[in-house]
Amino acid sequence: MKHGVVTGSSRGIGLATVELLTKQSGFKVIGSSTSGNNPLDNSNFKCFKLNLANSDSITEFVEDLEDVKLDFIVNNAGILLEKWDASAINMKELKQTFDTNVFGTIEMTEMLIPRLNSKAHIINITSDWGSFSEQNFDAFQPHYKMSKAALNMYTKLLSKRLEEKHIKVSSLDPGWTQTDMGGKVAPRLPKDVAADILNLLNDDVESGQFWHQGNVRAW
To answer: Given pLDDT bands bounded at 50, 70 and 90, which one contains residue 84?
Structure first.
């Protein structure tokens, strides 16, 4: 039985992921939401309250896990605060974005690393917008893009650090997906990304890579 954490599991990609994983015979999943509520009712699923921008909340979430050992972490929770056509830096929004997407995600992950089993897998949900190889690069959404670029670097650094423990670390670019953030006209569905995540967890992939739809993509 594989035990793991999926943050931001009350909607979008996170909800689709916990729905898919808990349909598998060998998965028990702990999810998170800012309210602690989740629409999924499954005996292999629990949801706890978590605000990644608050260190006390992160500590309480980790304590809620009790002594469970983990086989995977899917760092899915994230925020995008700026308008789609915004390019100017707003320091308040930049700090809020990094508090959740970078600092909180890293803080929680670091607290959970001692709980990871050998051959565990950490998957950071990042974005094409956090890559330096984005083909349609523009100046918009700067706070979000910088936060995901930082999370991509954390993937690379952590993969090296955990190499001897045989723990894999991956970034995943979900592509343009129909979520509250992506909108209803996006070509991908949350369940498509959930399938990508399940495949990464099941496959013996190389650590420290950036994945998109089953293929390694450029950083």
So the answer is: confident
Candidates 65, 188, 182, 208; CA nearest to 129 is 182
Chain segment 67-78, per-residue pLDDT in tens: 999 999 999 999
State phi, psi for 145 to the nearest 5 degrees: -65, -45
pLDDT tens per residue across span 113-167: 999 999 999 999 999 999 999 988 999 999 999 999 999 999 999 999 999 999 9
What's the token pair of residue 23? 């349909």
Q: 47 forms bridges with which residues in the sheet?
A: 31
Q: Sketch the domain layout of the chain as residue ranges.
A: 2-216
Radius of gyration of the chain (CA): 16
Question: In terms of CATH architecture, what is 2-216?
Answer: 3-Layer(aba) Sandwich (3.40)
Cβ atoms of 156 and 132 within 8 Å: the answer is: no
Joined together, the tokens standing for residue 28 give: 């028990």
User: In 26-172, which ranges are continuous DSSP H helix?
Assistant: 55-64, 91-98, 105-112, 142-161
**Measured between alpha carbons, how far is 31 from 74 in angstroms, rounded to an integer?**
10
Question: Is 101:151 a contact under the CB 8 Å cutoff?
Answer: yes
